[in-house]
């Protein structure tokens, strides 16, 4: 009997082992689920991932924008050329372009499993409490990643198609063959189309970068994504049809607008939103110039105005992602050809110092002329023509600005579009002195007219071209008089480009790093440091000296006491029942009320948003009172200033703070962030109405 049972012991043993193994796996799986259900992703931990996703879409936006410009430019140069191209059997060239395109299938091999895993993890996390925020963020970031990948490959195909049939990549050769009447008609029609597109959306006017800086500085961080898309389309029409404007402003604005939308959906705090906006802006610069380091420096120096460790990882990841995507769509070649350079003698530093002075003066002139043209076309000039222009609709004004740009393009082809092709020619020293001087002056005037009249585009790259032309002309003179101790004119063209960018943005690090990265030459850093520093400091000094003595936001906040804006409200006793508290909150203007503690002292505030967690469960209504929902907050003194109040709000991450009451008063104060914003807006509106409009660093682009 026992002999017969021996063979059965093997299967029984294996079955027992399998049961134990399955039980262990089950316990491990349950423990993993419980750990994931306890998981809470704070803002900083998911911010780098959000920054990378924003960078991905900024790179896509740069690719779409570049192809839109190519499409409009192709239409401008005529369908006849396209037919001729097709008759020349370019189908083979098109297939070669598709084969040579940078498809990067590894992006899909990496991105799709990661996004799918995030979606799967989100399904396993049980709902309820803080886990809902985790599920929502994981799901949204995963879907955005998949959406970006689904846009990338069609965009690569479009770029390949545009590389065969587009015209914007070879402007110096194509422009001389453009009929004279089309050189006048195309920018005129483009300006009218842009004016009609933006006529009912005045909030989309501007250069792009200043609007992002103001959004970050004010703490609003609200840039709707539809505005960013509209600005990209309008700027593509302006540049593609021949208007004098730059590409970087719309890309910066579009990237920041997308970041603003994503950050608000993810529920980020204001501080995190500011960093995310900088991610979108920096990735836009990185993608436009194929310069990730310069984009990251731009985000920290110009947008955030700070260099802190906590902002590094999201901004750098965004710049890397934007550059990788743009390289796949627009190519990996640098925008500037690598030109051999060396500092011939130590005395040549004096020449670069002189170039810095010239770049600073040019940037200051550009800023003043740009603002002057904007006010002239808006009817604020003193002559009849300005008044007449101000009475006309935006499409007509923008069309006239485009016509002026078309006329100036006859004298200098650099006026047409962004004109970036001519920077390489200046860097190689192939442009004569008269051409360089003419291009510098006419590009400055044409850009001011195009944008001031209502056209859409940035001023960042036109300033770079102006600096390159001025630097080339300056280098030609210096090399003529001192041939043995100075380098060729092309070196001065590159350094002048960086000096103009640094002066216009008042960001010397941005100008230095951009040209250092684009030139690919370590030896150019010394002259760049000299020129960019002097140009930036000079433009800043001239602008501040010229600007009217109007109080800045910081001055207003420091000089205004809290009691000037605080509203007086009757505080809510600690024992107020939930139903009565709900009625009081819903009828209050700010949606926030001060709350007393059990001994009658000011405790904190209660907000209408806090009712969302309990309003559906009527069983808790009899159990909860105001003190259960109130949040303890420090009370402001009535004599403290608004700057201190905003600092406390940012530290507590709230929109309202209680204000201590005067002795014997039955009411106490409440200061809201919205009240501070209305106060600043009213002060700026009054200053503009009186003609006192300060030019801040953020408005100089």
TrEMBL record:
Q: Where is the CBS domain?
A: 629-686
Q: How does it sit in the membrane?
A: Multi-pass membrane protein
- What GO molecular function terms would the record report? chloride channel activity
Q: Which keywords does this chain's UniProt record carry?
A: CBS domain, Chloride, Chloride channel, Ion channel, Ion transport, Membrane, Transmembrane, Transmembrane helix, Transport
Q: Which CDD domains match?
A: Voltage_gated_ClC
GO annotation, cellular component aspect = chloride channel complex
* Matches recorded under InterPro entries: CBS_dom, CBS_dom_sf, Cl-channel_core, ClC, ClC-type_chloride_channel
Indicate yes or no for the key word Ion transport: yes
Spans through the membrane: 138-160, 180-198, 275-299, 311-330, 350-373, 394-416, 422-446, 458-482, 524-543
Pfam families, alphabetically?
A: CBS (PF00571), Voltage_CLC (PF00654)
Q: Where found, per UniProt?
A: Membrane
Instruction: Check the record and name the Gene3D superfamilies matching this protein.
Output: CBS-domain (3.10.580.10), Clc chloride channel (1.10.3080.10)
Q: What is this protein called?
A: Chloride channel protein
Native organism is Pseudomyxococcus hansupus
């Amino acid at each position: 009997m026992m002999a017969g049972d021996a063979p059965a012991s093997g299967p029984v043993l294996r079955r027992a082992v399998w049961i134990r193994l399955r039980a262990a796996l089950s316990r491990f799986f349950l423990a993993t689920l419980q750990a994931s259900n306890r998981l809470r992703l704070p803002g900083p931990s998911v911010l780098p991932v959000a920054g990378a996703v924003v960078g991905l879409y900024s790179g896509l936006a740069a690719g779409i924008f570049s192809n839109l410009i190519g499409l409009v430019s192709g239409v401008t140069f005529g369908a006849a050329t396209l037919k001729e191209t097709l008759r020349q059997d370019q189908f083979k060239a098109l297939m070669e372009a598709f084969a040579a395109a940078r498809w990067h299938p590894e992006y899909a091999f990496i991105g799709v499993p990661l996004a799918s895993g995030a979606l799967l993890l989100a399904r396993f996390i049980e709902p309820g409490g803080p886990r809902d925020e985790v599920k929502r963020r994981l799901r949204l970031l995963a879907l955005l990643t998949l959406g970006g990948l689904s846009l990338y490959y069609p965009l690569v195909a479009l770029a390949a198609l545009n590389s065969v049939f587009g015209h914007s990549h070879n402007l110096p050769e194509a422009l001389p063959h453009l009929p004279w009447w089309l050189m006048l008609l195309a920018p005129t029609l483009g300006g009218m189309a842009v004016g009609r597109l933006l006529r009912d959306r005045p909030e989309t006017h501007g250069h792009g970068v200043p609007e992002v800086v103001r959004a970050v500085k004010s703490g609003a961080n609200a840039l709707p994504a539809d505005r960013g898309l509209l600005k990209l389309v309008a700027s593509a029409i302006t540049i593609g049809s021949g208007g004098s404007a730059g590409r970087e402003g719309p890309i910066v604005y579009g990237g920041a607008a997308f970041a603003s939308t994503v950050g608000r959906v993810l529920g980020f705090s204001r501080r995190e939103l500011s960093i995310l906006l900088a991610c979108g802006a920096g990735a836009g610069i990185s993608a436009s110039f194929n310069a990730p380091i310069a984009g990251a420096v731009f985000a920290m120096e110009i947008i955030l105005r700070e260099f802190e460790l906590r902002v590094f990882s999201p901004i750098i990841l965004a710049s890397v992602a934007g550059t990788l995507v743009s390289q796949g769509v627009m190519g990996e070649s640098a925008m500037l050809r690598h030109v051999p350079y060396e500092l011939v003698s130590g005395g040549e530093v004096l020449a670069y110092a002189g170039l810095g002075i010239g770049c600073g003066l040019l940037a200051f002139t550009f800023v003043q002329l740009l603002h002057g043209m904007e006010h002239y076309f808006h009817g604020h000039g003193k002559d009849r023509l300005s008044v007449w222009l101000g009475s006309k609709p935006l499409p007509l004004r923008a069309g006239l600005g485009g016509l002026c740009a078309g006329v100036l393009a006859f004298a200098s082809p650099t006026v047409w579009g962004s004109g970036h092709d001519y920077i390489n020619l200046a860097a190689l020293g192939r442009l004569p002195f008269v051409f360089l001087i003419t291009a510098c002056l006419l590009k400055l005037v044409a850009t001011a007219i195009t944008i001031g009249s209502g056209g859409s585009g940035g001023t960042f790259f036109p300033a770079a071209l102006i600096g390159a032309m001025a630097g080339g002309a300056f280098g030609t003179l210096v090399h003529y008089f001192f041939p043995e101790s100075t380098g060729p004119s092309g070196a001065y063209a590159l350094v002048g480009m960086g000096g103009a960018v640094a002066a216009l943005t008042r960001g010397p690090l941005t100008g230095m790093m951009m040209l250092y990265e684009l030139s690919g030459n370590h030896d150019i850093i010394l002259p760049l440091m000299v020129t960019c520093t002097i140009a930036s400091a000079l433009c800043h000094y001239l602008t501040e000296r010229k600007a009217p003595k109007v109080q800045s936001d910081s001055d207003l906040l420091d000089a205004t006491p809290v009691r000037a804006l605080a509203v007086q409200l009757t505080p809510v006793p600690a024992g107020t029942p939930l139903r009565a508290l709900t009625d009081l909150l819903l009828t209050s203007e700010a949606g926030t009320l001060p709350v007393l503690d059990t001994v009658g002292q000011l405790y904190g505030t209660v907000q209408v948003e806090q009712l969302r967690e309990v309003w559906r469960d009527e069983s808790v209504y009899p159990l909860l009172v105001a003190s259960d929902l109130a949040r303890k907050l420090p009370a402001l003194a009535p004599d403290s200033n608004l700057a201190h109040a905003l600092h406390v709000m940012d530290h507590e991450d709230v929109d309202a703070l209680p204000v201590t009451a005067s002795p014997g008063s039955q009411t106490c104060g409440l200061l809201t962030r919205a009240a501070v914003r209305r106060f600043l807006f009213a002060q700026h509106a009054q200053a503009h109405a009186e003609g006192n409009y300060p030019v801040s660093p953020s408005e100089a682009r």
